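Study this chain:
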Amino acid sequence: MPVPHDLYQDLKFSKEDIQQKRTKDPLLDSLINKYVQADAEVVKAETAKSDAPSDDALKKLKERRLQVKDKIVQQLQTPS
C-alpha cells in the first residue's frame, strides 16, 4: 500500500525546524508546497484502480517529486 513520503525524515530535519525556515524563506515554502502536491499525485496514481496511469506516467510523477525534493535540499543548504 503506497504511503506519502515523510519529507522531514528524508531531510533529517524536525518538522519544527522546517516550519521555522519556511516562515523566513518564501522560496523554500513554495518548494515544500510543490513537494506536498507532487507527493499527493504520486500516492493517488499508485492507489488508482480504474484510471491507473501507465508505468511511464507514474515514473514521471516520481521524477518530478524527486526534482522538487532536490531543490528543497539545495535551498536548505543555501546560507540565509
Notes: The chain is about 75% helix and 0% strand. The CA atoms of residues 1 and 28 lie 30 Å apart.
